[in-house]
Amino acid sequence: MLGLAAGSSAGLWAPRAPRGAPGQPRTHPSGPELPRGTPSPADKGTSRGGRAGEAAPAPTAASPHAEHRQEAAASSGQTAAPAGEGGSTPRRAACRGSPGQERDYHSLCERQPIGRTLFRQFCETRPELSRCVKFLDAVAGYEVAPDEKRKECGQHLIEKYLKPKSEDHVPEVPSQLVDACCERLEQEPSKELFKESTKLIHDYLSVAPFADYLDSLYFNRFLQWKWLERQPVTKNTFRQYRVLGKGGFGEVCACQVRATGKMYACKKLEKKRIKKRKGEAMALNEKQILEKVNSRFVVSLAYAYETKDALCLVLTLMNGGDLKFHIYHMGEAGFEEPRAAFYAAEICCGLEDLHQERIVYRDLKPENILLDDHGHIRISDLGLAVHVPEGQTIKGRVGTVGYMAPEVVKNERYTFSPDWWALGCLVYEMIEGQSPFQQRKKKIKREEVERLVKDVQEEYSEKFSPCARSLCTMLLCKDPLERLGCRGAGAREVKEHPLFKHLNFRRLEAGMLDPPFKPDPQAIYCKDVLDIEQFSTVKGVELEPTDNDFYQKFATGSVPIPWQNEMIETECFKELNVFSTDGSVPPDLDWKGQPSPQPKKGLLQRFFSRQDCCGNCSDSEEEPTRL
């Protein structure tokens, strides 16, 4: 069972002092002042992130009042009972929920990083469940193993987990399926070899073990993390640093979460500028799409909040610059083919993740592909992205001249074909050092560019190998029905092209392949802050009370998966998720007992102190940060 750490008196909600001065937020070693370049990470704040992740802190034993328990329980499909008289702590039965409520195993135990971690910790308390979790981990390792080692890895997995005499035997996988796996492994060690076996294990875990988990202290602790995740987010949640660039409705600046030290990019959308341009629908659409997509290859939305003058999107910080800068301002224009192929493969994975959510991007170009500290890319700026309803097509003549597909230029209906055309344009540009349909710094009328796109075959120089030329030709096919990626199998068609034969896409998708180029941490891959033009003041526009409905839809606070990843990678989860070795119940989860004593100030208080002190400050009164 969960319990107190030795010497602790308040369990999870007795936060320990962070590294550095007691009770002070962790900051960059040089203090709040960052260099003129793009800010460096504080502690581990700018790691690349990904699809897996972990979680964050929860309320003190005395703090979860009735309304907070209701909110946390609601976020996980549970109901919570009000606290008893005299401020007594809530009872465990409060989290059991009603029979009619949906409790999603996939969401609670696989998709949400903190939920996944706590469910696994629960499974480790029972040998029969622990074996299942270890088997799933072994399959994950098999799937990302190098091609030359996959067969050996598969044989070891079968011997350890699927043979009846093995100490770690998993009986949930029937012998007939084991025999089939052995036979297929000898013929061809496919990455999908254990797909059916893992499904059986998840089916098993999602019934009785999942029900037991929902009635455990581990799930009660998960509810505490959800309570903290849903706390209000304001400008005082962050420190603001230098301006990085400009968006359509305002500036983009670097920012840092005060409580964790995590660095992000804050995209500000000025309320008056949005209203003047009638951009409410576009802004909300981008926010909702970013919120929906969880991909290693697309920028993540971690927070959405509002100030008096702006709506703010807090996004993945990408310190390595954009592809346009690297193509044209880092020596001779263009890349060597292996580098171009690596970026094309990662972009293909990002498009695949978007298309799986039925989202067509429609604005793929070098400026919108950003590099992180390690040299991996992410797709950014989803302002033109749109959801395509199942079984339907859409219409819209949007995009950037020179990258718009023929069917878009002709204003015809489409689904995802424009993105594969734009990928062809981008691969061509990365290798050739110029766009296929317009020359850099040479003015060509829009009508002429569109004529070239519709009617003229692009030309290839000696820079293109036969494989690279083949890929571009197939992606730049004028007929969308014949275009690579549009023939029924989507991204798989592109991944199977010979240009990518040397890439293991499973390892790529897991972030296990080293990029061909790593940005210099001392270099600045963006404009100097003095070279970024200032926005002019918006005149003749007044904000009205009726605008608040739109602002409330936008400013929804933390986004669960990125927030939980932040808590794990900054080690807040590890620091607060304290278990005991004696099997006792920690006071913060002992809902039959008395409230725990008020914990000392420390890590957890950092999540609340700024809002308590500065919650009523106006934008102009915000604590300044030196640049």
Low-confidence stretches: 1-102, 620-627
Strand order of the largest sheet: 1-2-3-5-4-10
> Per the principal axes of the C-alpha atoms, what is the gross shape?
globular
State which percent range the strand residues make up.
Answer: 5-15%
Q: Residue-averaged pLDDT, rounded?
A: 80
The largest sheet is: 6 strands, antiparallel
Taking the alpha carbons of the first and last residues, their distance comes to 48 Å
Indicate the percent of residues in helices.
25-40%
Please provide the count of β strands: 10
**Rg measurement, Å:** 26 Å
Number of helical runs?
A: 23
Q: Briefly note the structural class of the backbone.
A: alpha+beta
How would you describe this protein?
With 627 residues, the chain is an alpha+beta fold. The chain has 23 helices and 10 strands. It has helices spanning 66-75, 105-111, 113-123, 127-143, 150-162, 175-187, 195-205, 208-214, 217-229, 271-276, 280-292, 323-328, 337-356, 406-409, 417-432, 446-455, 466-475, 491-495, 505-509, 548-554, 560-569, 572-576, 609-614, and strands at 238-246, 251-257, 263-270, 301-306, 310-316, 359-360, 369-371, 377-379, 386-387, 557-558. A 6-stranded antiparallel sheet has the order 1-2-3-5-4-10. It has a two-stranded antiparallel sheet with strand order 6-9. Strands 7-8 form a two-stranded antiparallel sheet. A hairpin with a 4-residue loop joins strand 1 and strand 2. Helix 1 (66-75) packs across helix 9 (217-229), helix 2 (105-111) crosses helix 3 and helix 3 packs antiparallel against helix 9 (217-229). It is globular and about 75 Å long. Residues 1-102 and 620-627 have low confidence and may be disordered.
